[in-house]
């Protein structure tokens, strides 16, 4: 029996900052941002959006009545949680009008947690093949203004419906994984911005990839030429290229050229959004599906990494009608119709946050065209709204 990703949706807020403008404001060479880290634009989040609304907007792209009647497991992966107790998945279940007869869980381990959710969903479907699983990966990457991590911020959400006989990607049962207690990145419960040792984290990322990849080839007797594309978690898009280059000597020139070309297509959309944390790998998958040179039946390898640290390499088989599992036109329109903001506006929006003292705040939602919005906080409860 085949199980895996049947449909995928994506959402990012309606504002972005051009990285050239940020470079000029910070006194840096724009090439450091465009080439050195591989980013062109960065999503900017208004006060009317959070991980719940972004995930709901992404999921609304793809859910049908049949999905709503058969989804009975919701797995919400995020490291930007809005409550220390109540799962974001429950807010989402209510917003989307999904059945109450479901399990709704929040999953956390930095940027890796969406992969954990995907693997949990796969195992669930193998036992319950007639059901469907909704996986959400939504985050807001925040490091602070004028910090070393500022250029690797971003925001957005990827929604995935999992099923038997999936339309997009059938997941294999082959994977290798690694967990180590590493302080390369973390966010204390009292902080709204992450703490990160950028160079150390990049080195750990490469170490994890090489360890897990070689363990995978030794365990399952695969080689690089078995794959049309390798996909990577992209905290910034150059990071995945660095990892890919470490293994290209293991294959012939034709395969190396194919893998490099497909990697470039797999980071097209990430370059325009920035870091999605849990969603970065899966936005890269979407970008590859939309822009890459792929054929049905192709094997894809995926490297998932979450600081702290945990990583996994797993594979899937591309299905013949994979292009029908997502709406490329809608996603490209979403990206193209965003409004560019200048640096002062971005800084003001970054500093505008909901109150943390229990006070009431009502947001102006009239300028947010999204279907699902955050209308404010009242009596210490977030006020979510669905707009026509």
The helix-strand sequence is: EEHHEHHEHEHEEEEEHEHHHHEEHEHEEE
CATH superfamily of the largest domain: Thiolase/Chalcone synthase
The average pLDDT score comes to 96
Query: Whole-Å distance between the termini?
Result: 40 Å
The computed structural class is alpha+beta
- Tell me what portion of residues adopts beta-strand conformation: 25-35%
How are the strands of the largest sheet arranged?
A: 5-4-6-7-1-8-13-12-11
- Domain count, please report it: 2
Number of helices: 13
CATH architect. name of the largest domain: 3-Layer(aba) Sandwich
Can you count the beta strands?
17
Organism: Furfurilactobacillus curtus
Pfam families: HMG_CoA_synt_C, HMG_CoA_synt_N
Family: Belongs to the thiolase-like superfamily. HMG-CoA synthase family.
InterPro entries: HMG_CoA_synt_C_dom, HMG_CoA_synth_N, HMG_CoA_synthase_prok, Thiolase-like
Architecture overview:
With 388 residues, the protein is α+β, with helices and mostly antiparallel strands. The chain is 35% helix and 27% strand. It has helices at 19-25, 30-36, 51-60, 65-70, 88-95, 113-127, 198-220, 237-247, 253-266, 268-273, 280-291, 328-336, 343-351, and strands at 3-11, 15-18, 41-44, 71-77, 103-107, 132-141, 154-164, 169-179, 185-186, 195-196, 229-232, 299-306, 310-318, 339-341, 361-362, 372-378, 381-386. The strands form four sheets. The protein has a nine-stranded mixed beta sheet, with helices on both faces. Helix 1 packs across helix 2. The N and C termini lie far apart (40 Å). The mean pLDDT is 96.
């Amino acid at each position: 029996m085949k199980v895996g990703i049947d449909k995928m949706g994506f959402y990012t807020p309606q504002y972005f900052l051009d990285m050239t403008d940020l470079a000029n404001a910070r006194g840096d060479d724009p090439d450091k941002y465009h080439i050195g880290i591989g980013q062109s634009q960065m999503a900017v989040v208004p006060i009317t959006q959070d991980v719940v609304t972004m995930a709901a907007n992404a999921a609304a792209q793809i859910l049908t009545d049949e999905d709503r009647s058969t989804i009975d497991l919701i797995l919400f992966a995020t490291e930007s949680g809005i409550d220390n107790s109540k799962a974001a998945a429950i807010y989402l279940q209510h917003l989307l009008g999904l059945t109450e007869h479901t399990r709704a869980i929040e999953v956390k381990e930095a940027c890796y947690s969406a992969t954990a959710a995907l693997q949990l969903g796969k195992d669930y479907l193998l036992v319950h093949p007639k059901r469907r699983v909704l996986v959400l990966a939504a985050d807001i990457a925040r490091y602070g203004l004028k910090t070393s991590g500022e250029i690797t911020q971003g925001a957005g959400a990827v929604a995935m419906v999992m099923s038997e006989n999936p339309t997009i990607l059938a997941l294999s049962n082959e994977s290798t994984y690694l967990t180590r207690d590493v302080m390369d990145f973390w966010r204390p419960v009292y902080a709204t911005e992450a703490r990160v040792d950028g160079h150390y984290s990049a080195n750990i990322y490469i170490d994890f990839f090489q360890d897990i990849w070689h363990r995978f080839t030794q365990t399952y007797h695969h080689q690089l030429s078995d794959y049309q594309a390798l996909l990577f978690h992209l905290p910034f898009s150059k990071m995945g290229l660095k990892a890919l280059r470490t293994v290209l000597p293991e294959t012939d020139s034709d395969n190396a050229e194919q893998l490099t070309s497909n990697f470039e297509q797999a980071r097209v959309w990430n370059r325009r959004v920035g870091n999605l944390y849990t969603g970065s790998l899966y936005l890269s998958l979407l970008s590859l599906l939309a822009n890459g040179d792929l054929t049905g039946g192709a094997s894809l390898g995926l490297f998932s990494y979450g600081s702290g640290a945990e990583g996994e390499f797993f594979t899937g088989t591309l299905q013949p009608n994979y292009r029908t599992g997502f709406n490329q036109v809608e996603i490209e329109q979403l990206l193209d119709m965003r409004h560019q903001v200048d640096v002062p506006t971005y800084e003001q929006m970054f500093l505008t946050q909901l109150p943390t003292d229990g006070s009431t705040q009502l947001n102006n939602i009239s300028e947010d065209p999204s279907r699902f919005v955050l209308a404010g906080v009242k009596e210490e409860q977030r006020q979510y709204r669905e707009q026509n």
